[in-house]
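agent> fetching stored inputs for the zinc ion docking request
agent> found them:
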Amino acid sequence: MKCMNCEGQKMKVAKIDYPVEIPGGPSLKIKGIEVFQCPKCKDTVVDSAVSAMITKMALSSLFTHYWPLEKAMPGTVATWIRKAIGMSNAELAKLSGQTSAAFSQAEKRNSDLDSLAKLHLLIKTADFVTGTTVGTDSLGMMMSQVGELVHDRGNVDSVEYQEASAG
Ligand SMILES: [Zn+2]
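agent> prediction call returned; pasting C-alpha cells
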C-alpha cells in the first residue's frame, strides 16, 4: 500500500495509540492498534475489521462512562453513539416516547439527552458491543451485570478516556 500524500512512499505496519475524538465529548485513545503508517508524513490507514474494532472499543468505553444514570450525556455524544450503532433518530425517539422532531432539535442544540432516551441508547449500545441482547433483556431487571459484560467484551481497559476540556 502506498501513501496518498507522499508519492511512492510505501506504508508500513505500525502499532499506535489510535485517537478517537467525540465532538463536544471526550477524547479517547485506543491503545496498541495495528495500522498502516507512512514513515514520512505519519498518515495512517486502518483496515475495515480494525476500524470496526476501534468503534466497538470506543463505544464500550463511552458505555462504561455514561452508564451511571445520574451522569449527563451531551447531545453531540449521543449523536455519535447513535450513528456508530446504526440507530436512526426516529427509532430512539420512539423508544423513549418522544417525537422525532423534538428529539432532533435537542440534538442540534446539544442539550443533555433526556434520561429515558439515554437509557435506551445505552441499552442498544450494550447489545451492539456484546453482539447479544443482554441490554434489551435487562430492561426492568437488575442492570449491573450489563455493565460487567460490556466492560469484559469491549476491552475497556485498553482505552484511555479523557474528558472534554472546558470552553
Ligand atoms: Zn506520506
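agent> quick read of the result: Strands lie at 12-21, 27-37, 44-45, 159-162.
agent> awaiting further instructions
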